[in-house]
Each structure stands twice: as structure tokens, then as C-alpha cells.
Amino acid sequence: MPHSVPSVEATADRLHSAAIHLLRHVRKEDAQSGISGAQLSALSVLVFAGPQTLGALARAEQVTPPTMSQLVNALEKQGLARRKDRDRRSILVSATAEGRRLLQAGRRRRLKRLARALAALAPEKLALLGEAADLLLRATAAAETEQAGDDNRRR
Amino acid sequence: MPHSVPSVEATADRLHSAAIHLLRHVRKEDAQSGISGAQLSALSVLVFAGPQTLGALARAEQVTPPTMSQLVNALEKQGLARRKDRDRRSILVSATAEGRRLLQAGRRRRLKRLARALAALAPEKLALLGEAADLLLRATAAAETEQAGDDNRRR
DNA sequence: GCCGCATTGTTAGGTTACCTAACAATCACG
DNA sequence: CGTGATTGTTAGGTAACCTAACAATGCGGC
């Protein structure tokens, strides 16, 4: 087992840890949004991935349909999302303008906090981080689609 | 507003997104651990940061003391953590050997999944990711200690 | 020494997030 | 058509969180 070159395992470990700390850091801003983490996260999917059926949204959030139904109830009651019939059994959930506003405001707070943490870095370090983020996004996205079949079979 | 050099804001944004996707990806393994996400996360702090008072653990998990008390109850009932008196009002919570085992097993599953996603990358990309992880860890850690005073004042 | 005040946890009681089981309705397709 | 798979919701329960109130202890000033 070679280890002279950066091992995949060690890199995975450090990335994992970094991601945990990063999100723990920025999540401190979320209290100010006035809605819960679960609702915020669902809303975020709606805003960035667009309108979804309830089932798709549940899968995206790794939650069962009844749970998502109730989260959407809460979001609707606050005017942040809306149900719309697609055919007569499935529905499309989408964010309202107010939902988008609330989400973006919270997101800006998160990013601002993260930006403060990055402010002291030299430009080339920043560039390196940017490139790393892109690599990571592509790698996890690829792994998702690969394992989509797997996961479906497993449930 | 300059944008020729990689802007801090844009980089923060991509890192944020990458971290979210990364954790969403690996979290799929957690169901197999048999305990809940909240318990797993608290246990992880105990294993990696060592024994803590209940209050410190609550702060680390960004949760109130009663909530943490109840999480620790659950962990104790399963033999994964243990309370120990420090003086006669404060207690030290620590992971048991079984707690450490369970945590490490889950962690290995997470890392394995992440490693699979990284497997296709060229060695130099891996090295880049490793360096990025380190940079990030240091940057967020520094920001934490800086804002510790701030946060204390705010509560 | 001791008195007040801050620190540390727990109890009580409530809300929200999540689950499984059961169901209702609709769609798709032979 | 009618049967089986898909899509949501209702019902009922547990776990995760909160605030308020409290009990007990530690600690610094006098």
C-alpha cells in the first residue's frame, strides 16, 4: 500500500474535518433567520434547484415524504413556499419571492462570516481554495450520479 | 469594487457550497451507525477533543445545557459515554471505549465514501485538496478564537 | 467565616423534526 | 377497464431542541 504520494484516505479525512468546521462556523448566523435549520435547508434546495415535487425534495433532503410534507406546511404558513398541482396527485413546491429574500439574506450572513475568516489569506491561497472547491463539487456530483442507481436499489 | 483577482466573497461562496455537498454526501453512511446525528456529533467531539464538562460540550455543539444533558443521558444509556464528577456541581463527560469504537467505525464509513469520490483525481489535484483543507482549518480556527469574545458577549 | 452572586446541571413542559404504518387518490399500462 | 406502482397526506409515536424555574455548589469581598 503506497503512501509516498498524498493518500486519498488522508486527504478525505482532512477535507471532511475542514467541511465540518466550516459549516459549524457559518451556521452560527442561522439563528437570525427566524426559521429552523431544517426549513432553511429545504428552502435552499427550492431556491437553488428550482421547483420540485414533494418527493424529490424529500429525497434531496434525505428525509421521508411525511416529514417533508410537514416542513412544507410550515414554510407555506409563513409565506416562504407554495404548493402547486402538477397533475392531480403530484405537486410542485416552489419558493415564494419572500422565501427567496429570506434565504438570500441568511446566505449573505453566512458568506460574510466565512469571508471574514478568509480575509487574511494571500491571493494565491484564495485562488487555491477556489480551485479546490470546484474540484470537490465536481467529484461529489460525479459520485452522486454514479451511486444513484445503487441507492435506489437499496431503499 | 475589484474583481480581477479571485474575490474573497466568490471563493467563500464556492467553498460553502462544496462543504454542504460534501457533508450531504458522506452523511448517507450515518444511518448504519444505529444512533442519531445529534448523538453522533456530540460523541465525535468527546472522542476528538477529549472529556468535556457538560456546558462546554453544549457550547461546542451550539446547543443549550438541558438539550446536551438529555443527549448525554441517551449516550450513557447505550454505554457510549460516561459522566464523572469533577467537583460537586460540574461533571466531566467522556466517551467510553465502546463509544470510541462506534464513532470510529462510522467515521471510517464516511471517509471511505468520500475517498471513493476522490479516487479518480490525479495526484496533484489531491495534493491541492489536501493543502486547501489545511488552509481552511487554520482560517476557521483563527476566526473562532477571534470571535470567541464577541460571541460570549452576545449571549 | 459568611453572604451574596455567579456558575453548573437538572426538571418540567412545550414545540418542532423526524419516523413507520396505514390510507386515499391517481396514473400507467397491459 | 382493472391492477399495480406512484405520490401525498393522516395518525400516532419518539427524539431533539427550546425557555423557565430551580437546586446545589463554588467563590470573592468584606
3D architecture notes:
- 2 copies of one chain form a homodimer.
- Chain A is mainly alpha-helical.
- Chain A has 2 domains: 8-120, Orthogonal Bundle (Arc Repressor Mutant, subunit A); 121-155.
- Chain A contains 6 helices and 3 strands; from the N terminus they run H-H-E-H-H-E-E-H-H.
- The first copy, chain A, has helices spanning 8-26, 37-49, 54-60, 65-77, 97-118, 123-154; strands at residues 52-53, 81-85, 91-95.
- Chain A has a 3-stranded antiparallel β-sheet with strand order 1-3-2.
- In chain A, a hairpin with a 5-residue loop joins strand 2 (81-85) and strand 3 (91-95).
- In chain A, helix 2 (37-49) packs across helix 4 (65-77).
- The longest helix of chain A is centred in the C-terminal third of the chain and has 32 residues, at 123-154.
- Chain A is globular.
- The two termini of chain A are 34 Å apart.
- The interface between A and B is large, with 56 and 56 residues.
- Chain A binds a DNA duplex (30 and 30 nucleotides) through residues 36-39, 53-55, 63-71, 74, 87-91.
